[in-house]
Every structure is written in structure tokens, then in C-alpha cells.
């Protein structure tokens, strides 16, 4: 690939001497050295960029090697940032590349760190880091190129403070969750059983979460018609399972030494029989069929194992095989638990963890007459895997550099959001440029004084939930301080360790935070302040702890050919409750810019005109602002 | 000769190993195991290995094709048995010649190149059979359609994401010779205005190549730009078309292989080769043009 090494002369020729000078002097930050990152780093080096910093927390996995071409088998387990640097230097030994095997969200990388760069480029795969880099770039007033890919689809856009939308200007659909009673009592799709099996894993081997119960839910509103009935059922329940529910699943499992047969019979026989006793549930549903270990072992005939292409992963296991694998994986996980001496964390790439979830989910699916799935398919759903290929990443990484060149050249007006479609659109475009959109004045991140209204039950919601679920998870803060706007400036949460720990278990009302209260949340690292207007609600739906005004509900499946850019988002929302790594979130900016697959020529032209108009506005606004940018999937 | 060698030729057996399944996990999830099997049985000949060639080569090797053979432009031999043919940066006579051999022998042919901020790909897959996965559509039941938001039920056709049907399809391609000789002056002004200008640019550059025996080298030099514009006027006049269909700016941005443009065009070519050999998904027929100044990539069929 020696010929790939560009020379300054060529770049002076093609970029013009001014731009090639800009490129040579530019200092750029690349966040993420995975699928897009590998391609991007190669492009940057070959385009003549000389001063590049790469940061990535991740290490190399074998499933990265089909597209992350800077890595080889011998690099598995090593730092992506460091290996990508070494490999890229071979294309151009003169480049100065600094690799950081670290988390970009760490406090070490404050506003001053971001300010050193002329452009920041995101090559990320998760929303939390994207939100964070978005805020850091807004705070540092550095232009950001945001990007993303999912399968055949991709996009790249530019975010510039005060000029364009920021990454968070348009509310993004929240991740789909399933009601607890669907998971615990009345699963109707494979995904319900998979979510249940992952919860079961955490109950048995991991960090138990009260929201992840796996036993029958006796308070299912559908099952409890009248109070009297409920009491009867509770009585029955204790009779039926001898008060097992009172002890935690984990303690009970430990007491029986993780005996697979006892676990099997409890989960797939006793619990199912208990569910059957809640007969209201089965009036309009097919009732589940309890299994027991003895019967299933007896039924174990020598049926021919269909060797469909020979891959264990691709074949759907029989219930008998599932019960064997269930038993074996429990033994392995028990040993892992003993060896580690601490909770296990579910990992789709760990064989026993994956075997456990596949077998448990499939046995449950079988009981509820739901089609069973191969391990390959279960992995996709349980691990939120987004397919990824080299070519899409290559294309998007090229687009990112084109955006960066426009920024460095002072041509922000030429930057666009570029979508890569799976098929040409009605205007025959495969790569579709759309004008950048000005900031949303109501954005809860980039507005001058951001405010947001949150509906919650002040009598029951704790300070801990406010911090973890609302401020960190929903509003992307890293270390928030919260002050009550009560004239006294009472501190509710402090980011200094130990200062407000005692507040965490208390409810908001204990601090006189009621309807119409205002809370000032401040994240020092992100240089970001947000005012929360609290509206008390005591009638939120089950399992819903809070609602944010203007939030978009998770989209329902749309018509057949979804607009090209909608697909990743939908995939994300179909994905299960998992939350790990590389594969998970495929975001995209600005739902407003989605294109309908069926748009007519005429509409397309109008759209184009509109975009031209938008561009004009953007360029008017450019005058003396610094930039910020956007991320694409 | 085999009409579509890649589909019938699975000479190394079709069993994908567990190791391969792990390595190609993320793409098998996208195009399926059958497509991956065909990929691993296919051989590609790549002619020319500069910036764009390197990109294409990288993408194909990553995809898991059986082999990529790289040759320098000259020693191309009609006896080469290949299931794919890739050509770039050839003079036009050679490309047309190679394309003819491929077309006559049922070998899939691609040509691609990058000129500064512009690039293109041409494909001649002959008579190409392929399959497409289409989602199963189920009409929403009355129950489901009475949604709280009161949207009429007709708007909701339910797509079962887990179920798809495989549909067999067919596409006919044309030779490069025909695609380049395409008459356009009978088309309406509206249609002409929508044609990607890069098509005309390619013709101008081909003319430049045959006239000067080389590609345009530097845009720092006004003489070179003037030569390009003169040839542009000539080419457009012969086509009986308005010169503004290829605005002047191309002449200042059409030299050298710019790395990000190679990445973009190389990515498109890589994906099209994957489609061609795997027989999965609709191929781009027959030109793809990328315009780096505007940021758009357009597919247009010329014949
Ligand atoms: Zn914003």
C-alpha cells in the first residue's frame, strides 16, 4: 500500500496550497478507533493531516477484524487506540499521532483539552459518549464532525455552536422497554423471553436489580380484578411455592448450591404452574405448559441433529438440548462466580453467559408456544448487535474528512448532513446531502438558558433516581451538582464525594421539592447548566418513573421500506434491554430531516429548495461564531 | 464459460468454519450465510493498484473473498479465468476491450476511477440474477389500528421484522462502449439538467488522456485548466449539449487521487462487488458518480 502514502506536493496540487497548509497545521481529535475510526485515521494520514490525537477505551475483539483493518488477529485484546496508531504510522511515518487508551468522558478531558483542536471528529458507537462530546465541543466552541453507521446505512454531519443544530437539539426516542408483567407473566415474543433470561442471569449471578424480577408478578393489573381475589392469590402463592418469593432468588440459588435440576423445576414448572393459577391471564391467551426435568430427560430421544451448515450457532436447539445446555452453563457460571468472588457481568461474548441466556430463553419460549431462536439470533437481540461492514465505514469516513476539509477551509456553509442510503432515492441519490439546520431554540443542551419540564411523583421519587436515571441517564450529565431554587440555594446533590450521600434514599418531597419546584443542575466538566421544572404527577403509568415534556415515544414499526435514515434508529429501538459496547446505539440527528422513501420528484425538489434556503440562513449566521458539529450514526 | 461462476463455483466446499463465523459475524448478520459462502468462493482480478485500487482491495479482502489477484495495467490476458473483473485508470480502449471479453464470457466487470474531488464506478454484470429480502407485510388488525392517537388505520401496515420473504430478481446491464456512446440530445432540458455532471467530466478526461497521453496533472497551472475547458467545450458540442451542464469548476478540482474520495468510491465499488458475487441485493445499474464539491453520490443508467 506504499502508493497510498500521499505527498504534500500532490495535496498542494489537489487541495490548493491554502487548504493543504490548513491541513498540515491542523490539530485534530478523533474520538473512537473502531469501525469508522480505523478508516478515518487512514484517511486523515493519507490526506496529509500531521497532528492527530486518537482516544478509545476499547480493546480489540475478533469480531472487529472483518472491518477494522488496522487490526490483526495477533492484536486481539490490545488497545484500539494504540494499535491503530502504530498501523497508521506505517502509511505515513511523518504524522504525529498521539494515542490514548482512555475514556473521553473522564474529567481529565475538560474544556481546555478540547480547545486545543481545530476540529473534533466522532467515530463513536454509543449515545452517552456522543452526548458528552457534543457538550464538550459546545463548551469549547470547537467544530465537531459527528458520524455513524449501521449495516448499509450511514451519515455524517457538522455541529457548530450557535450555527447548527447540536447533537441533542432533536429529542431522540428513548430505548424501548417492556412492561414488567409482560416479561414476568405473559411473554408473547422471543424478545420477552430473552429479556427475562438476561434478568434471570443477573438475579442468579450478577448484580440484582429490583426492576428485573423474574418470578410471577402477582400484582399484574390484568390478573387482579378485585381486592379479594388478590388476597386469595397471595395466599395461594405462598402455599404453592413455600414462600420462596420472600427470599431473594440469589440467596435461594446459593442455598441449593445452584442445583440445575432444582432451578429448572422452580423456573419452568412451579412458577409456570403458579402463573396458570392466575386464570384471568389465560382467558384470551394460550396458557403456558409447565415442563419438568424428569419428563424432558425421558423425552430425550435420539433425534437426528440437523447439521444445518454445521454451525452450532445457527441451529435452533431442541428443548432437550436446551435443558442440557442450561444445566452445563449454570455449572460453568457457578465456577466463574466462585473464582471471581464478585458478581458476574453479562457479556454476549462469554460462551457460558450466552449459552445460559439462549437456553433459558428458549425453554421459556417453548413453554409459552413462542418460536425458539438460534444462539446466533438470540445473541443479536440480547447483545443489541448492529451489523457492521467495512464498506459503509469506508464511505462515511471519507465523508467525514470532506466535512473536516470544508471546516478547515472556512467553508462551513458548504458542510451538509450527508446520508448514505441503502438504495438510490427517487432522485437517484445514494449519498444525499441535506442542508444543516439552525439550532433548536428550545434545545435542553445548546439553548442560551436551557430548561426542561419533568413530570414525576415527588412523594416517591428518590434523590438517587433523580441523579442516576434523570440527570445522568436521561440528560447525559457525568457528575451533576443540584441546587434547589428555593431562595436559599439548598444543595440537593453535590458532585463532591460524600457530601450528600445521605440525601440519596430520601424522596424529593422530603426536601420540599413539590409541584412547580425548580432545580438547577450543573455539570462542571461539561460546563452545562440545566433547570428542571418539576411537575408533580401521581398517575404515571406502571414502570414509568418520570416523563420529560416533548419526549418522543419509541416509534412503532412503520411502513415497509422505512426511509433510509430511519432504519438504524428503529433497529436500536427494537433491540433489547442490553447496554454494552461497540454495537449498540446507532443514533442519528434530526428526525425532521428524514426523507420518505416515497417522496415524489416534485417534493424532492421542493425539499432541495428548502435546503438551499436553510443553507443560506446558516451562512448568514456564520459570521463570527466558532463551530460545533454533529455526529452521524 | 460459466454464466455466473461465483454462484455455481463453490469448489472449496461450502462449510463455513466456527472461526470464520466469529470473524465475519457482523456481516453475516447483514447479508446472511449464503452470501458469505458465495463470497468465500469468489476470485477477483484487480487491475491497477493506486489509491483507489488499494481501497477496493482492502474492502474485498475484509469481506472474505477467496482471492484478489492484482495486476498492473498491461499484462491482461484473455485466458485469465476470473469471476470478477475490476479495472481502473486504463485508457478507454483497454477498458472497453476488457469489458467486451467479460461481457461475452459472463464475467462481471467493474471500472472505477477517482479524479481529484470526483469519482465514478461503472458496472456491467451482464444478465444478473439476484435475490432480495423483503419484509412480510401484514395488515394491521382492527384492534391494533384503533390507536389512541386516532391515526387512520390505513397508515399502519405492520411489518414483521422477524419475517422476510426472498424474492428472485433480474437486472440487465450494458457494455461500457454502449454506456459511453449514449445519445442524450433528444432528452428534455429538465432531464439533462439532472444528469450528473461527472459523466461529462469523465468524457472530457478521457479525451484529455487520448490527446495528451496522460491524465491532467496539476490544477495550479492555468494552462492545464484551459486545456480541460477547451476539451469540455469540444465534447459538449459533439454531444450537442449546453456547456453549462459541466460547470467550469471541475477543471480546478479534477487531478490526483484524493484519499477521502478514494475511500468513498472504493467503498461503493467494494459493496457492489460483494453484491455481484453474492447475488444478494439489487446492484447499482450502471454508473455511480460522486461529486465531492456538492457531497452527492448519484446512480444513473446510461445505455
Ligand atoms: Zn442543541
Tell me what you see in this structure:
- Chain B: This is SUMO-activating enzyme subunit 1.
- Chain B: GO terms for molecular function: SUMO activating enzyme activity; ubiquitin activating enzyme activity.
- Chain B: Belongs to the ubiquitin-activating E1 family.
- The complex is a heterodimer of chains A (633) and B (303).
- Chain A has 19 helices and 14 strands.
- Chain A is of the alpha/beta class and 633 residues long.
- In chain A, helix 13 runs antiparallel to helix 14.
- Chain A is globular, with a radius of gyration of 27 Å.
- Chain B is 40% helix and 23% strand.
- Chain B has eleven helices and nine strands.
- In chain B, helix 3 packs across helix 11, helix 4 packs across helix 11 and helix 9 packs across helix 10.
- Bound molecules: zinc ion.
- The site of zinc ion has 9 residues of chain A, from loops.
What are its keywords?
heterodimer, A: 633 residues, alpha/beta, 8-stranded mixed beta sheet, 6-stranded mixed beta sheet, 14 strands, globular, disordered C terminus, B: 303 residues, 7-stranded mixed beta sheet, two-stranded antiparallel sheet, 11 helices, disordered N terminus, binds zinc ion, ligase (chain A), nucleus (chain A), SUMO activating enzyme activity (chain A)
Provide a concise account of the structure shown.
The complex is a heterodimer of chains A (633) and B (303). In chain A, 37% of the residues lie in helices and 12% in strands.
Fold topology:
The complex is a heterodimer of chains A (633) and B (303).
Chain A: H1 8-15, H2 17-25, E1 27-31, H3 35-47, E2 51-55, H4 80-91, E3 96-100, H5 111-115, E4 119-122, H6 127-140, E5 144-150, E6 153-159, H7 180-184, H8 190-204, H9 227-241, H10 249-255, H11 260-277, H12 293-298, H13 319-340, H14 351-367, H15 375-382, H16 390-408, E7 416-420, E8 429-435, E9 451-456, H17 463-474, E10 480-484, E11 491-493, E12 518-523, E13 528-536, E14 546-548, H18 567-574, H19 601-621
Parallel strand pairs in A: 1-2, 1-4, 2-3, 4-5, 9-13
Antiparallel strand pairs in A: 5-6, 6-7, 7-8, 9-14, 10-11, 10-12, 12-13
Helix pairs in contact in A: 1-2, 3-4, 3-16, 8-14, 9-11, 13-14, 14-15
Chain B: H1 5-8, H2 18-23, H3 25-39, E1 43-47, H4 51-63, E2 67-71, E3 84-88, H5 92-105, E4 108-115, E5 118-124, E6 127-139, H6 142-145, E7 157-172, H7 176-180, H8 189-194, H9 197-212, H10 222-238, H11 259-278, E8 287-291, E9 296-300
Parallel strand pairs in B: 1-2, 1-3, 3-4
Antiparallel strand pairs in B: 4-5, 5-8, 6-7, 8-9
The complex binds zinc ion.
Zinc ion binds at residues 165-166, 168-169, 439-440, 443, 445-446 of chain A.
Amino acid at each position: 500500500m506504499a502508493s497510498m502514502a500521499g505527498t504534500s506536493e500532490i495535496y498542494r496540487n489537489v487541495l490548493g496550497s491554502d487548504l493543504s497548509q490548513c491541513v498540515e497545521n491542523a490539530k485534530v481529535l478523533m474520538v473512537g478507533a473502531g469501525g469508522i475510526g480505523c478508516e478515518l485515521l487512514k484517511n486523515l494520514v493519507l490526506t496529509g493531516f500531521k497532528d492527530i490525537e486518537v482516544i478509545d477505551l476499547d480493546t480489540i475483539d475478533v469480531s472487529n477484524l472483518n472491518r477494522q483493518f488496522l487490526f490483526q488477529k495477533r492484536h486481539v485484546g490490545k488497545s484500539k487506540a494504540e494499535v491503530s496508531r502504530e498501523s497508521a504510522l506505517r502509511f505515513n511515518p511523518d504524522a504525529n499521532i498521539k494515542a490514548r487508551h482512555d475514556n473521553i468522558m473522564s474529567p481529565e478531558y475538560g474544556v481546555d483539552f478540547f480547545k486545543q483542536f481545530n476540529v473534533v471528529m466522532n467515530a463513536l458507537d454509543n449515545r452517552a459518549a456522543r452526548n458528552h462530546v457534543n457538550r464538550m465541543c459546545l463548551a469549547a466552541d470547537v467544530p465537531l464532525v459527528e458520524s455513524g453507521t449501521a449495516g448499509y446505512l450511514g451519515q455524517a454531519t457538522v455541529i457548530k455552536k450557535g450555527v447548527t443544530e447540536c447533537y441533542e437539539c432533536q429529542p431522540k426516542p428513548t430505548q424501548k422497554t417492556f412492561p414488567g408483567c409482560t416479561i414476568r407473566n405473559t411473554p408473547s415474543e422471543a424478545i420477552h423471553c430473552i429479556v427475562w433470561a438476561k434478568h434471570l442471569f443477573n438475579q442468579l449471578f450478577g448484580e440484582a436489580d429490583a426492576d428485573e424480577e423474574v418470578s410471577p408478578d402477582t400484582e399484574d393489573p390484568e390478573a387482579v380484578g378485585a381486592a379479594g381475589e388478590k388476597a386469595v392469590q397471595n395466599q395461594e402463592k405462598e402455599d404453592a411455592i413455600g414462600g420462596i418469593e420472600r427470599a431473594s432468588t440469589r440467596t435461594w440459588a446459593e442455598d441449593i448450591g445452584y442445583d440445575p435440576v432444582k432451578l429448572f423445576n422452580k423456573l419452568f414448572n412451579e412458577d409456570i404452574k403458579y402463573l396458570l393459577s392466575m386464570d384471568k391471564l389465560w382467558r384470551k391467551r394460550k396458557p403456558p405448559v409447565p415442563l419438568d426435568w424428569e419428563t424432558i430427560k425421558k423425552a430425550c430421544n435420539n433425534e437426528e441433529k440437523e447439521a444445518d451448515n454445521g454451525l452450532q450457532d445457527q441451529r435452533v436447539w431442541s428443548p432437550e438440548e436446551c435443558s442440557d445446555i442450561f444445566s452445563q452453563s449454570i455449572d460453568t457460571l457457578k465456577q466463574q462466580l466462585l473464582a471471581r468472588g464478585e458478581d458476574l457481568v453479562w457479556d454476549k461474548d462469554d460462551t457460558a453467559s450466552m449459552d445460559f441466556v439462549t437456553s433459558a430463553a428458549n425453554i421459556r419460549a417453548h413453554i409459552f408456544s413462542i418460536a425458539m431462536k438460534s444462539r446466533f439470533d438470540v445473541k443479536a437481540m440480547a447483545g443489541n448487535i448492529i451489523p457492521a461492514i467495512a464498506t459503509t465505514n469506508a464511505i462515511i469516513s471519507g465523508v467525514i474528512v470532506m466535512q473536516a476539509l470544508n471546516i478547515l477551509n472556512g467553508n462551513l456553509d458548504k458542510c451538509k448532513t450527508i446520508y448514505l442510503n441503502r438504495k438510490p432515492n427517487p432522485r437517484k441519490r445514494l449519498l444525499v446531502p441535506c442542508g444543516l439546520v439552525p439550532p433548536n431554540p428550545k434545545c435542553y443542551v445548546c439553548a442560551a438558558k436551557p430548561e426542561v419540564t419533568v413530570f414525576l411523583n415527588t412523594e416517591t421519587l428518590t434523590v438517587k433516581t433523580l441523579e442516576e436515571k434523570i440527570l445522568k441517564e436521561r440528560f447525559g450529565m457525568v457528575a451533576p451538582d443540584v441546587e434547589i431554587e428555593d431562595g436559599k440555594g439548598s444543595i440537593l446533590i453535590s458532585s463532591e464525594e460524600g457530601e450528600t450521600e445521605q440525601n440519596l434514599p430520601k424522596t424529593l418531597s422530603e426536601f420540599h421539592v413539590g409541584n412547580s419546584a425548580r432545580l438547577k443542575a450543573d455539570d462542571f466538566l461539561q460546563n452545562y447548566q440545566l433547570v428542571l421544572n418539576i411537575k408533580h404527577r401521581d398517575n404515571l403509568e406502571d414502570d414509568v418513573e418520570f416523563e420529560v415534556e416533548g419526549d418522543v415515544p419509541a416509534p412503532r414499526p412503520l411502513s415497509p421500506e422505512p426511509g433510509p435514515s430511519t432504519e438504524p434508529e428503529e433497529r436500536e429501538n427494537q433491540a433489547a434491554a442490553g447496554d454494552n459496547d461497540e454495537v449498540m446505539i446507532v443514533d442519528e440527528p434530526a428526525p425532521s430531516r428524514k426523507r420518505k422513501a416515497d417522496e415524489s420528484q416534485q417534493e424532492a425538489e421542493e425539499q432541495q429548495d428548502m435546503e438551499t434556503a436553510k443553507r443560506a440562513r446558516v451562512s448568514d449566521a456564520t459570521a463570527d461564531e466558532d463551530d460545533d458539529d454533529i455526529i452521524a450514526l | 464459460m460459466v454464466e455466473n461462476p461465483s454462484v455455481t463455483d463453490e469448489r472449496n466446499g461450502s462449510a463455513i468454519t466456527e472461526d470464520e463465523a466469529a470473524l465475519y459475524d457482523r456481516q453475516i448478520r447483514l447479508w446472511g450465510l449464503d452470501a458469505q459462502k458465495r463470497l468465500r468462493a469468489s476470485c477477483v482480478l484487480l487491475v491497477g493498484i493506486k489509491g483507489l485500487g488499494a481501497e477496493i482491495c482492502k474492502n474485498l479482502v475484509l469481506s472474505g473473498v477467496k482471492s484478489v489477484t492484482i495486476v498492473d495495467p498491461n499484462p491482461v490476458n484473455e485466458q485469465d479465468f476470473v469471476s470478477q473483473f475490476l479495472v481502473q485508470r486504463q485508457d478507454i480502449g483497454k477498458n472497453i476491450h476488457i469489458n467486451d471479453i467479460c461481457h461475452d464470457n459472463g464475467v462481471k466487470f467493474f471500472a472505477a476511477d477517482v479524479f481529484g474531488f470526483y469519482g465514478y464506478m461503472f458496472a456491467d454484470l451482464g444478465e444478473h440474477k439476484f435475490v432480495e429480502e423483503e419484509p412480510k407485510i401484514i395488515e394491521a388488525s382492527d384492534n391494533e389500528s384503533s390507536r389512541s392517537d386516532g391515526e387512520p388505520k390505513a397508515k399502519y401496515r405492520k411489518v414483521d421484522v422477524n419475517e422476510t420473504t426472498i424474492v428472485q430478481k433480474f437486472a440487465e446491464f450494458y457494455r461500457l462502449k454502449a454506456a459511453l456512446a449514449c445519445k442524450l440530445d433528444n432528452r428534455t432540458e429538465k432531464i439533462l439538467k439532472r444528469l450528473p455532471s461527472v459523466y461529462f467530466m469523465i468524457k472530457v478526461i478521457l479525451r484529455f488522456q487520448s490527446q495528451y497521453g496522460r491524465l491532467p496533472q496539476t490544477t495550479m497551472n492555468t494552462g492545464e485548466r484551459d486545456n480541460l475547458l477547451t476539451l469540455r467545450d469540444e465534447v459538449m458540442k459533439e454531444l450537442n449539449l449546453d456547456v453549462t451542464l459541466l460547470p467550469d469548476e471541475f477543471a480546478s478540482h479534477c487531478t490526483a487521487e484524493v484519499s477521502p474520495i478514494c475511500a468513498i468510491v472504493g467503498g461503493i465499488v467494494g459493496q457492489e462487488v460483494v453484491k455481484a458475487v453474492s447475488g444478494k441485493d439489487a446492484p447499482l445499474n450502471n454508473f455511480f458518480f460522486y461529486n465531492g464539491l456538492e457531497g452527492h453520490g448519484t446512480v444513473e443508467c446510461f445505455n
